[in-house]
Amino acid sequence: MAQAGGGPRHRFRRDSEMSRDTVRVEAFSDAVIAVALTLMAVELLQFNPSGAADTDLVSRLQQEWRAFLAYIITFAIVGQIWLTHHNSWRYVVRVDQMLLVLNLIMLMFVAAIPFTANQLSDHLRGSDVDQQLSAAIYVGAVLGEALFFNLGWWWARSHGLLNPDLDPRLAASVSRRYLVRPLLYLLAFAIVFVNPILSLLAYLLLVAIYLVRGPGDLPPGGYEKSERGEPSGDHGPEN
Amino acid sequence: MAQAGGGPRHRFRRDSEMSRDTVRVEAFSDAVIAVALTLMAVELLQFNPSGAADTDLVSRLQQEWRAFLAYIITFAIVGQIWLTHHNSWRYVVRVDQMLLVLNLIMLMFVAAIPFTANQLSDHLRGSDVDQQLSAAIYVGAVLGEALFFNLGWWWARSHGLLNPDLDPRLAASVSRRYLVRPLLYLLAFAIVFVNPILSLLAYLLLVAIYLVRGPGDLPPGGYEKSERGEPSGDHGPEN
Amino acid sequence: MAQAGGGPRHRFRRDSEMSRDTVRVEAFSDAVIAVALTLMAVELLQFNPSGAADTDLVSRLQQEWRAFLAYIITFAIVGQIWLTHHNSWRYVVRVDQMLLVLNLIMLMFVAAIPFTANQLSDHLRGSDVDQQLSAAIYVGAVLGEALFFNLGWWWARSHGLLNPDLDPRLAASVSRRYLVRPLLYLLAFAIVFVNPILSLLAYLLLVAIYLVRGPGDLPPGGYEKSERGEPSGDHGPEN
Amino acid sequence: MAQAGGGPRHRFRRDSEMSRDTVRVEAFSDAVIAVALTLMAVELLQFNPSGAADTDLVSRLQQEWRAFLAYIITFAIVGQIWLTHHNSWRYVVRVDQMLLVLNLIMLMFVAAIPFTANQLSDHLRGSDVDQQLSAAIYVGAVLGEALFFNLGWWWARSHGLLNPDLDPRLAASVSRRYLVRPLLYLLAFAIVFVNPILSLLAYLLLVAIYLVRGPGDLPPGGYEKSERGEPSGDHGPEN
């Protein structure tokens, strides 16, 4: 509120810069994840142009069911990434430089997932080496995402960026749950040496397992006290 | 506000996790729908490369009018999906895990619509089997969207996620209206066995019918009492 | 707050549905425009694959300068569309069904602009008929956008969706300014019959002309009274 | 609140139009940057179709490592652009017409980065002239972004669009820091005349250097006084 000479009266100075909440980084992450999801649909669901002219739709659909399977499984994985991001960031109250950088690196892996999924679905019919290599690239992108997501959560916890009202014991059990996920992905990947399709189905099973409610998930519905300052009383289900 | 030892004083604990409003899931859904719409434009409106060199623009436009028609109709359908999402979610006050999952599966079908629309427009000139199969895939994506949208609405209603000020009778008539829509889409699809172009036009008619105001739609304009606490009085139209 | 029987006490009923502000429709429109802009970059700036192998980068750049020009001009036009949307919607306080539909149709034309710009840049070297036809499709998308944008503004004005504090005389002069723009675009299009490159440059000139401040534009900077309730006094520029 | 006749009582008139905060322009910029990042992944990570059929995945990966490197470096550069945008715009309290235009031109360069990165990675194996020319186009897009970003910041500073609580001395040192960045990019580009891969690594080094905390960056974590009006006291790290 003062001219340049009256520096001490400015609130935002070199030693007390403005902090920022998480609205913009969440919106940006959403945009990257949303575009990755939709581009993946376009990439994966595009039929192989080779032989397009001489075969009919029925036989092409029979050839392309692997692409449909890869689409569903990759959508499930990326959907789970979004869900976890959505749930974990509700406890983050402000960001610092390092948290943003870790989040950006995480998004770099998310943005690479459509490519790796496409590779995977293309090589499910290839040689054993091709199958295993493309599955390794696929799980690499997923593990890279999980690694930097975990690093971001750990950083936020240990640098006072989380809501001070968050019980540290809850934060600790959330951390443990987040850490187990990449290990399970490695397990699903290992199945590729037995059968690549079975490996994909194992990913799907994993995503399903994580839907069982655990620490860090959203509370169940019902008009709860904390939000209206009164007992939920007579507002039961209405259908 | 207390150290780890004073757990009970933390507001967010394992048994009382923070809930979350709908801002982020709405923004994320918007991003997926917006990207799907725009990618669809790029995909559908891309001329077939075959024979690009030897024909002029006039004759190619004559060949490609089906793509334009498919673009307009698919934009109308996806536009209506957005409109319904926009209107229904204004009554949702908070989300739980299952509502987010149902919304993600709905988005999986939305993201697949550009591909199915492209298939449809490519095969409108194909054999009868090709036409009917691509129309079935198209309506499959639309029905999948409608199914999971309806499931999400039903879940929100029956688990106390809607605004408690919403009259249950209004919620019930909104539900009925949402349920009829997929049935009408099936009808439009059935016409493909008569004529595929007629079937597309039936979709367009359906979207138009749903613009007639019904339960769940936005109220008409005018500065209404509820928002300013005073009669709308002298604020009539001004043009 | 009451059970289904006590209907009259619910605030949102069949005859008094909840209204909605403009936050979500603005964010959705932004997403569509942003994706269109970025896809346009990818489409337009992609070199023609024909002859890719046998020519070097220098000669290909010389061939592709039309694509760069088309990119800059289309970015300018779509950028102006966003700017006008951004400025006009700050006066809109709530939406109704029809305003959303008009906005969606406007976005349908915006999403088609990357395709039309690509066509235009491809046919700048074609026959006269090709040039004029692709320029007509291009201006058609731009005019369609302008038409439905104008209809939306007119609808908002005449149905009480604008801020009641907006001076009707200002609203009227904004309307006149918005109406002139499509007429000028038609003029720029007509120049294609003289020279297609000249026509593109005329579009660029038009966008530049609209940067001259007129009714509906944002006010100039400086800490103004209306926002802080005090004279701007000693807060001059600080560089 | 009055009819057209009572003009003076309207708050928003021709000479006192409504101003607007930065929420929408930030969200729009985020969307463009997010799409550019994700499209870049799809473009860069797409294997060259030539020879796709006759070579296996291993040998193709060996050929394509340049694309991976270009992806990581371009993601780092665009990530830094987002980070700088995120940090600098927290001090902007309102926008005027010119700031929006400068921001749009900046986005035009950002949207062109996927194309230039693709060109660069394609020509890393080409002739010396091809390498240097594609590196020049690449750095041109990055420098164009930096130029218009700096112009926008300068405009906001000199036209009273920044938070009045921002110490002008902080604003000045932020400006100096922003100005040095493009000069360093030029340095990294110059290395292309020695070795193109080395030049890319120099970009990566530059991004890393800018992660060292300087003026304009976010403050470090910890529950700070300014946000809660109380000493941070007993809220240390909790892991």
TrEMBL record, chains A, B, C, D:
UniProt-listed Pfam families: TMEM175 (PF06736)
Chief location category: membrane
Catalytic activity annotation: K(+)(in) = K(+)(out)
Superkingdom assignment: Bacteria
Subcellular location(s) of the protein: Membrane
Keywords: Ion channel, Ion transport, Membrane, Potassium, Potassium channel, Potassium transport, Transmembrane, Transmembrane helix, Transport
Compositional bias ranges of the Basic and acidic residues kind: 224-239
Transmembrane regions listed in the UniProt entry: 65-83, 95-115, 135-156, 183-212
Gene Ontology MF annotations: potassium channel activity; proton channel activity
Coiled-coil annotated spans: none
Cellular component, GO, one term: membrane
Family per record: Belongs to the TMEM175 family.
Protein name stated in the entry: Integral membrane protein
Organism: Salinispora tropica (strain ATCC BAA-916 / DSM 44818 / JCM 13857 / NBRC 105044 / CNB-440)
Organismal lineage: Bacteria, Bacillati, Actinomycetota, Actinomycetes, Micromonosporales
